[in-house]
Structure formats: structure tokens, C-alpha cells
Design a protein that fits this description.
2 domains; six-stranded antiparallel beta sheet; alpha/beta
């Protein structure tokens, strides 16, 4: 009888100790809905990030950790890419001096990559060259912008238009926007609804959006207020879709965009397709996620939100 009471006391202590564990320490659950997203691995210091395996990747929804089921490097046979270069037709014609750098960037893409060219005009994306593996053909579609400051109401209308008319694909889908980022339809200030809508469209479609700042025409081209908010908006779109925004200041174009294109090219070689089991809600919708790794000198960059189907 004494041994029985001792055993019960030990069992009770174990149960109480387990119940006292904090919620954020729980292990990933095997239950959930498979969700895919493209993730870029960055180095915190230097240019070469360390190797990252599936076991090194952590995905959180709030305090809950989701189970990672796959981590595929997008290289070799898995490197398929669809990339649209989206240029602003209201840009200063100084952009013409950067076109040769863009042509060389297109020519350097792997044979499996499809490249398209479109121009922002009248709130839409006017496609000059549809996605093609004929890179010389895509490069040939580049031309000088029209340089009319009123020809493009909002770069974010054009981005949303491009996304909504982009056929679904199993390949990576990414955009390089080249614009001053100024929303002439909304104006300036926090919480631009058209920027937010473009971000939501990109996240819902799983499309990553890079941006390079180039000045526009007219008064806005030398307005600190306008150019500041334009670059803020571009940074928001890039950051929330898992990409990078490039710019050097508020007046005048960069001497060359070649360093930006080189960085983008390197990022495209350091991307992975992540699959994890997300916890669904009663209704389908966007849910915030957080990526983390404990591997030194490594950072995982992806969209701030993903689309999760409703619970069955």
C-alpha cells in the first residue's frame, strides 16, 4: 500500500510538471493544411549564406509552430522561373541609359527561365513581350519610357493588373518593378489602399515583387515629400512579398542599376520552395507567418502573409 501511494505521488508530480509548460514550447503539430511559399536565404554578414536544411527551418503562426514538410532548393531541374520586368512609362527618359544593363541581365538568365516585359500605363500593365525563354526576344522588347508624368496614375494599379492576368503556374513567379513608386492617384501618407491591395494580390498569388527606384518626370521628380513616400511604398511591397527594394536617394537616377541587378541575380539562386502545414481557420484567408532559423549567419526572407484554405 505504501509503494502504491508513492507511485501515485510520483505520477501526479509528473502530470503537474507537464501541465506547467508554457504554450510557446509545444512541438509542431502534424495536423494542418499544406501551404507553399518561396523563401530566400540571406547571409547576415558577407555574401555567402550557410547551408540550410529542412530541419533548420521554423515557421510560426503567432506562438504556434507549424510542421515543415519540405524544403526544395530551386536550382537545376527545379529552377523554373517566370519573371516579369515591369517598367513605368512615366519615368524620366534617363532610364534609357539603364536599358543595356537590363538587357544583359535578361540574357544571363538560365535557359529554363521565362522573362516578360510590360510597361505601366493608364493604370494597367501593357505587355510588350509575354513570358518567353527566348531571352534575346524579351531584351528586344525594352524601349525608352514615354516620359509623360500623367500617363500612369498609380504603379500599384499596374502591378495588381499584371498579377490578376498572370496564369497560374508551378514555376516561381516574380516581378521586377522599375518606377519612382509615387501613387499619383492616392497621393502620399500612411496606409495607401492601392499599395495594400497590390501587396494582398501578390501574397494571394504567391508572387515576389522586387523594386528599383528611378525618378519620374515633372514636379514629383524633385519633390522630397513625393519621392520619399514613393520609395517607402516600394519598400513596403518588396518587404511584405519577400523581396528587396533598391534605391540610393531622392533626386536623380542611379549612375547604374547593374549592382542591383547583380544582387537580384544572386538572390534568385538562393531561393527554396518551403512547404509547411498551416493551421486553417473556419474561413479561407490570409494569415501572418514568421520564419526563423537558428543557423548562424543566416536569415530566411519570405512573404509576411500566406493564403490558407478553410478547414475541412
Amino acid at each position: 500500500m505504501k509503494k502504491y501511494r508513492i507511485a501515485c505521488a510520483i505520477l501526479t508530480a509528473v502530470v503537474l510538471s507537464l501541465g506547467a509548460r508554457p504554450a510557446f514550447a509545444q512541438q509542431p503539430s502534424a495536423a494542418g493544411t499544406p501551404v507553399h511559399m518561396v523563401v530566400t536565404v540571406e547571409a547576415r554578414h558577407g555574401s555567402v549564406p550557410p547551408e540550410i536544411s529542412r530541419e533548420d527551418v521554423m515557421v510560426y503562426q503567432g506562438h504556434d509552430r507549424d510542421k515543415v514538410t519540405d524544403w526544395v532548393p530551386l536550382q537545376g531541374d527545379q529552377a523554373r522561373l517566370e519573371l516579369f520586368i515591369l517598367l513605368d512609362d512615366s519615368s524620366n527618359t534617363s532610364l534609357g541609359s539603364q536599358l543595356e544593363d537590363l538587357r544583359q541581365f535578361i540574357a544571363a538568365q538560365p535557359a529554363t527561365s521565362k522573362v516578360g516585359v510590360a510597361y505601366m500605363r493608364d493604370g494597367s500593365a501593357r505587355i510588350e513581350q509575354n513570358l518567353t525563354t527566348e531571352h534575346a526576344q524579351a531584351a528586344k522588347a525594352l524601349r525608352l519610357p514615354l516620359g509623360d508624368p500623367g500617363i500612369n496614375a498609380s504603379p500599384y494599379f499596374a502591378l495588381s493588373d499584371l498579377i490578376k492576368h498572370w496564369p497560374e503556374s508551378t514555376a516561381r513567379r516574380e516581378v521586377l518593378m522599375i518606377t519612382d513608386g509615387i501613387d499619383r492617384y492616392w497621393g502620399s501618407g500612411l496606409q495607401d489602399p492601392y499599395v495594400d491591395a497590390a501587396v494582398a494580390d501578390a501574397q494571394r498569388a504567391g508572387i515576389i515583387v522586387f523594386a528599383i527606384y528611378t525618378p519620374g518626370q515633372g514636379h514629383n521628380a524633385h519633390s522630397y515629400w513625393r519621392t520619399n513616400w514613393g520609395q517607402n511604398y516600394l519598400a513596403q511591397v518588396a518587404d511584405e512579398t519577400g523581396a528587396e527594394s533598391y534605391g540610393i536617394g531622392f533626386y536623380g537616377p542611379p549612375v547604374t542599376i547593374s549592382p542591383y541587378l547583380d544582387d537580384l541575380a544572386h538572390r534568385l539562386t538562393r531561393q527554396f520552395l518551403l512547404t509547411f502545414l498551416a493551421k486553417p481557420e473556419k474561413k479561407a484567408g490570409m494569415q501572418r507567418v514568421r520564419l526563423q532559423t537558428e543557423v548562424p549567419n543566416a536569415e530566411l526572407v519570405g512573404a509576411s502573409q500566406v493564403y490558407v484554405p478553410a478547414a475541412p
